[in-house]
Please model this.
Amino acid sequence: MSVPEKSAGGFDTRAIHAGQAFDPTTGAVIPPVYLTSTYVQDGIGGLRNGYEYSRGGNPTRTALETQLAALEGGIRGLSFASGLAAEDALLRTVLRPGDHVVIGNDVYGGTHRLIRRIFGEWGVTHSTVDTSDVAAVEAAIELGTTKVLWVETPSNPLMKISDIAALAEVGHEAGLVTVVDNTFASPALQQPISLGADVIVHSTTKYLGGHSDVIGGALVFAAGQEELAERVEFTQFAAGAVSGPFDAFLTSRGIKTLGIRMQRHSSNAHAIAERLVGHPGVARVLYPGLPTHPGHELAARQMSGFGGMISIELAGGAAAARRFAESTRVFQLAESLGGVESLVNYPSEMTHASVRGTEAEVPESIVRLSVGIEDVDDLLADIDQALAAL
Ligand SMILES: *Cc1c(COP(=O)(O)O)cnc(C)c1O
Model:
């Protein structure tokens, strides 16, 4: 019997098959979950397929890492216990005291906190800039000292769009590592490696897992970054923030429906964004799918869909934003995003509370929606009743 090439084909075929070959012993369609910490050796040092101890390697994690690399078009995927654990392993490997990072002024609050509070203590400095402004990024780079350019697009929570291809070119000229956090778009809608990015970061907790039932993170390396991938793999092993086998299984399972979920997230979000536009209580709707969004044309070029995230600026400021966030019923009030269920978040006191008072502070009039894949009519009715309560 011939085994099909598991990493070939279109995006959905790779999402379902890469790394997910059936079990050769029983024919089980789904590869087993290897709930084991260690592996019997055939004599001292006689390892079966290289497996020795599950911090160093576990077949369920290997299956996920193969799937991740195939999704992003990279040469290597690494899976971690959380998105921030993945970021930490990458930054720890690349940065030394005295180095400098250029980071978007509108990134995930926890990323900013990690660089400012943890790496800051170790003598790493950073500049926050609007990465949708390529000239501002160029100006912030200190040649020879800046080692990492950190880009998040669409950004969180202001939904700014940054030009990945242009930024990667700037990064390459400066000899630094260009990192793209692809959590918001997911590889179903945006392929940063094909645009020149060196390393992709994910919180797989979000769209990749897709069901709000597991915390996880990932790194994927572009061709040409083999040496860096090996060094980060050593950090993963030596520092140990790996994903456990059951978490890896849940993430692999979620990934198989990523393509179809992102279509529905995008179409539901588009309908809601259009409903919100023009309502007197809404000052601005930040959704890259709207032609009025300043990043719309760029998003249409570098993304194949506009995704499920919307931010809204309420005309009535903080009080109205809080009232809206506490009035929705189908949209549940919670941090996080990317699951099948719709969530509403008040960034300035929830996801982005850690950046209050810093240069990355989020306005108090902003509410963020993670639009799920429920029936769109139910979501629209929920938005209507929350707007009526303003
Ligand atoms: C959630 C998130 C992270 C951090 O991931 P965790 O899995 O929570 O550690 C990083 N980047 C973005 C864009 C996120 O939304």
In short: The two ends are 64 Å apart (CA to CA). Residues 1-5 have pLDDT under 50 and may be disordered. Residues 258-276 form the longest helix (19 residues).
